[in-house]
What does this fold into?
Amino acid sequence: MLRKVDKNEKKRAIALAAIPLLAKYGLAKTSVEAISKEANVAKGTVYLYFKTKEEIVLEIWKYVNDLLCESRSRSFENSSTCSEKIIHYFNFSILEEKHPMDMLLKLLSMNMSTILSFSHENLAKYFKQERLKEKYEIEKILREGVRKGEFREIDIDITSNLFANSFHGSVLNNIAIGKNIVEIRDIVRPQITFLLDSIKS
It folds into this structure.
């Protein structure tokens, strides 16, 4: 008996198959036909799941965030301090286990103009929601740290922004000047550690 096709699995498989093409050629120069060939499905099947190529990019970032959320949940269970939770929060090694990270970083860089220009409403809305969610989660860890006496009294709003902006700014700036994943990791980790040291009791 044939296994029933899971539509969510199929949708995600098509999106993930598009990663190498989107990273190499960008959104505008990647055709739906090329994506269908890479995913080994008919062109009509791609349109069955995605109305636009931007929706494919959106599905890729949903997948990325799902992986990160699962990894963070596991790491938080084994973390004894809030400092460890912050470090784990900005750890993206789970992605390296699944995909060439330089490819994902290039994909992010090439599609930031689409996100920042709000030319695709759903994509921009998703990234806004993820940034707000991120801010909430970092604030939660910081409050816990202050409550436990691990962190000194701090402005939670400003400090959460410092962590998030430092991380995302460093990643994007270093992608732009051609740094690879190893170089970016070596730059980001000390920055997060420096910020942590500045708020510890």
About this structure: The two ends are 62 Å apart (CA to CA).
